[in-house]
Design brief:
8 helices; about 260 residues; 14 strands; alpha/beta; Rossmann fold; single chain; 6-stranded parallel β-sheet
């Protein structure tokens, strides 16, 4: 399928899992893609819905894989949520992976027996027990706000596809008749924060991702350009629901070529 080139963006946002990394290893062309942008002085940001690793640990893993990054070039939903909790002085019940706890260390603490002001749902993995979900449900029914760190339905794990946090957020929304505040993709908050970090308007930025819903539709709704790569969680049926204006590329290096950044 012929896809014409578009004006090169002034900044680029990359999803991580399935685009730059698979497990702990860099995907083909990924290291070279980021190095190319650095050499050309084009600002970029890594934006992920991953909520099984803290910001610091994920940054170290990326650096160990060969990516040259600063902490400011990595944005996670936990950072967005924690900032909101601190700003609004909300005490939160955290239903998250244990490795993510350090990202919420500076948030108002929830004392034993006190009622939470908010419930934060991330990819808790084995922590998604009936007891944990019911505790969250009761807090929501008592008036707590619901924060979602990820709306992703699933992700590509080392041993296959795995459920992400999105289905559990939908469960709690339906049970408690509430609406989650999205701190991860495809919510507007994280795209707004990403644009602010890059110092560019949405129309000057293109996102490269492998999830047609969280990455591509989320970016297009927020006014960014978008390229869907056929790596990671991509499935051929994704092409049928590709939003208008989005491009398709085989992998990340091909995406940069289509964007005129080769």
């Amino acid at each position: 399928m012929f896809q014409p080139r578009i004006p090169a963006p002034a900044g680029v946002i990359f999803d991580i899992g399935g685009v730059l990394m698979q497990g702990r290893n860099a995907l083909p062309g990924a290291l070279e893609a980021l190095a190319r942008l650095s050499q050309r002085g084009i600002p970029f940001l890594l934006l992920t819905n991953t909520t099984r690793q803290s910001h610091a640990r994920l940054l170290r893993e990326l650096q160990d894989a060969g990516f040259e990054l600063t902490p400011e070039q990595l944005l996670t939903p936990a950072r967005v949520a924690a900032d909101r909790l601190i700003t609004q002085q909300q005490r939160a019940l955290l239903v998250i992976h244990h490795a993510l706890a350090e990202d919420f260390a500076d948030c108002p603490s929830l004392d034993a027996g006190s009622r939470p002001d908010a419930v934060v749902i991330g990819d808790a993995a084995e922590g998604f027990t009936y007891a944990a979900l019911n505790h969250a449900f009761r807090a929501l029914m008592a008036g707590a706000s619901l924060y979602s760190l990820s709306d992703s339905r699933f992700f590509q794990d080392a041993d296959g596809l795995s459920l992400d946090a999105g289905p559990f957020v939908r469960l709690l929304e339906q049970a408690a008749s509430t609406q989650a505040i999205a701190c991860g993709k495809p919510g507007a908050a994280i795209f707004t924060r990403a644009c602010q970090t890059l110092g560019l308007p949405p129309t000057a930025i293109t996102l490269i991702g492998d999830d047609v819903h969280s990455d591509i539709t989320g970016a297009r709704t927020a006014g960014l350009g978008a390229v869907l790569v056929k790596t990671g969680k991509f499935r051929p049926q994704d092409l049928a629901v590709l939003p208008p204006g989005a491009l398709v590329a085989e992998q990340v290096s091909d995406a940069l070529t289509q964007l005129g950044l080769d």
